[in-house]
């Protein structure tokens, strides 16, 4: 950021849930966290890391700072295959699959990667 990066900010930058999710999906699509943080002007690289941790840990933002924890459940191999198939048919929409089948985002993401 050059000299601009050394100036004090008087306001905290607020990022919308949609913006955070876009950045997280960029990481899932192969861009590095450093690239995204620099391109989006994040003040700290750790911001993106913390958002990813919250997102993949099954936490779902409900706005106004509240977060719901979505817990996973035990599944059979057949259920996992069905969930992976659903996610792949819907352009890797892991969040929709997690909500539809009542499992965590992290589980869906992991199964699709495998």
Automatic annotation (TrEMBL):
Gene Ontology biological process terms, A to Z: DNA transposition
Entries under InterPro entries matching the protein: Transposase_8, Trp_repressor/repl_initiator
MF GO annotations: sequence-specific DNA binding; transposase activity
A Pfam family of this chain: HTH_Tnp_1
Name by which UniProt lists this protein: Transposase
Organism of derivation: Salisediminibacterium beveridgei
């Amino acid at each position: 950021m050059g000299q601009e990066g050394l100036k004090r900010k008087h306001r905290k930058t607020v990022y919308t849930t949609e913006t955070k999710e876009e950045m997280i999906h960029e990481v899932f699509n192969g861009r590095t966290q450093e690239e995204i943080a620099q391109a989006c002007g994040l003040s700290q690289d750790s911001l993106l890391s913390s958002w990813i941790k919250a997102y993949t840990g099954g936490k779902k933002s409900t706005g106004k700072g509240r977060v719901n924890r979505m817990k996973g459940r035990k599944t059979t191999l057949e259920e996992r295959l069905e969930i992976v198939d659903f996610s792949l048919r819907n352009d890797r929409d892991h969040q929709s699959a997690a909500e539809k089948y009542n499992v965590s985002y992290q589980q869906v993401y992991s199964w699709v990667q495998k």
